[in-house]
Design goal:
Strand 1 and strand 2 form a beta hairpin. With 279 residues, this protein is of the alpha+beta class. The strands form 4 sheets. Strands 10, 11, 12, 13, 14, 15, 16 and 17 form an 8-stranded mixed sheet that branches. It has a 4-stranded mixed sheet with strand order 7-6-8-9. It contains 7 helices and 17 strands. It starts with a strand and ends with a strand. The chain binds zinc ion (ZN). Zinc ion binds next to loops.
């Protein structure tokens, strides 16, 4: 753990922690847990951190975000919870840039000529890890956002804000399930002109002449579909077998539709790169 709660309810990171100033009453940041933790000083190889001792009450409970490694969805939910609870209680902020322009085949063809002379080719899917607790400074693929969410502890992830058109928003506000995406859109609470990461399970695939619909399994009667229009068919190679029943993360801009008097939420995607499979 990189963060703990002090006796006064404020969050402290292990790097900022000073016994003389902050005292020795330290607790797990998860509100369902809040067990005592101890400070472990760092050395030249390892950053300082907090941990449970395993003795007496100092064990994370099963619902705690530090009890076991989290899946992508578990991690997203815990980060949302912690960002809601702790961002105004002294949680350190880390700014991460998300730029997914390179997913877009239209964008790719526009810049392809310019980039041909540029020899420094970087792998956009690579998450660069500088130090143990330091998150990458930019995200440029779905693979890297999934890797981010399953590679770091939830307190480190909870420090992440994303710069969206000049506004700094908690990363958890951009990664949502289809029900939340739907509510944000239809209640006009969405960040304007911003792409969202939406996860769900593929329930049906309808291949029409001009469009492919990929329907997520409804959650609380919320209907959500991905759409691939015909001009992008050549960039979309997944077969029905590869998609059906799979838990996926998709990225794009949300749009409203009404079908049989029912409000639905849609997201147009343009290629394979707009989807990442979740475990
Ligand atoms: Zn805990």
């Amino acid at each position: 753990m990189n963060s703990a709660i002090l006796h006064n309810g404020q969050v402290i990171t292990a790097r900022e922690y000073n016994t003389d100033v902050h005292g020795t009453r330290l607790f797990c940041i998860d509100k369902s847990c809040k067990v005592p933790v101890i400070f472990v000083p760092g050395n030249e190889n390892v950053s300082p951190y907090f941990k449970t001792t395993g003795k007496h009450d100092s064990k994370h409970n099963e619902g705690c975000g530090f009890y076991k490694p989290l899946t992508f969805v578990e991690s997203v939910k815990k980060v949302e919870e912690y960002q809601g609870d702790l961002l105004d209680k002294g949680m350190k902020e880390t700014l991460v840039r998300i730029n997914l322009n390179k997913l877009d085949p239209d964008y790719e063809s526009k810049v392809a000529e310019r980039e041909q002379s540029d020899k420094k080719k970087q792998d956009p899917s690579e998450v660069k890890i500088k130090q143990d607790n330091e998150t990458p400074s930019s995200i440029s693929s779905l693979k890297s956002i999934v890797k981010l969410m399953v590679s770091y502890e939830p307190d480190v992830l909870s420090s992440i804000l994303v710069n969206v058109k000049g506004q700094k928003v908690p990363i958890s506000s951009l990664i949502v399930d289809q029900e939340k995406a739907h509510n944000l859109l239809w209640k006009e609470e969405m960040l304007p002109k911003v792409g969202y990461f939406v996860y769900g399970v593929v329930d049906a695939i309808l291949r029409r002449e001009r469009v492919i619909y990929i329907n997520f399994k409804p959650v609380n009667n919320v209907l959500f579909s991905l759409m691939v229009f015909d001009r992008y068919f050549k960039h979309f190679t997944y077969t029905d077998e590869e998609l059906m029943g799979k838990n996926i993360l998709a990225w794009g801009h949300l749009s409203k539709n009404t079908y049989n008097d029912k409000n639905t939420t849609e997201m147009a995607i343009k290629s394979d790169k707009y989807i990442e499979f979740l475990k």
